[in-house]
Amino acid sequence: MASTETISTEATTEPTEVNTPPDSEQVQTSEQIQTEQHPTDDQSQADGQLQSDEKKQKDDSEHSGAIFQAVGVIIGKIAFNDENKSTIVIGNKEYPLFYAPKKQRAFDALKKEIEATGEHVQRLVVYPKVIHFPKKEQPHQVCFQLVGFDKGRQAEVISKELQDMEFKLCGLWQFIPVCCTPCISVFRNFTKERLDYIKQAEPAKKVKFMKASHLPLFWKDAPFPPFRFNPKATKEEQGHPVFVQIKAKFLPQRDAFAFDTLLALPEQKPPRFLKASKQDKSSVQAEKKAAQKAAYKEAGASGGKPPYKGKPKSNFKDKPKPQLKPQQ
Question: Which end of the chain is more exposed for a tag (fewer CB within 10 A), N or C?
């Protein structure tokens, strides 16, 4: 029987390309829209990597020990396919299940557990990931990143604090432009080591490393309304999102979360976090467009058929002429 993996409660993980959903690039697009309009961007810093300046290093939220976090427990039927991809079925819905490279040991242990016991229904500790798309009418996609699995054999793990389908969510309570439902936005927590890393990283890696998660949440009687950016308001009138720490239930029938319990009082000042600058995001987007354009030209030069956009024009010359019926 495989031993239970030690579970970390840190919600932000290293960037990975392993088993990520094919549409994961759309997350960056939605974040770019959100970043362009969000007033929490620090305009005074060229690198845009800190949410606040050095004067906020010892703010109240840091003294409280609060951090950005999103971790929870799900239970469902796990399946593996030939392409080394995995899914978990919760209720009647199937969700992608992937892992970061540093959690491959946990993933391998999970596979061995299922092979040894034949039991595909497992209780997992996961990070929730939500993919938003530029069009509001296009529904978001939920997937889960494996942290570990637990059979209740250890007492000092996060899965003992949470029931099945419960999540601990700590982040900014706000609307984002690409989602009609307000979200808990979970950013990457600030550390000096991470700051040193992103100062040396390439823009693409830097942007991906600081990518946030925006988790849709239904919270009927919230003590504070979710922040909504108003492009017509001045900076003084704009306001800012509140940092909240809650326990929430995952609703597979709605692909969203529902408020359950307030774990701490809302805070006006969030913990320090890292966020990519507009300049870096713009350069990464420009590189992607240039690469797509080059691939399009290469496909045309090699005789391949590049994707055609638009409706095909009808050719009237090739159509047979209608024959007249003889008069009676």
Answer: C
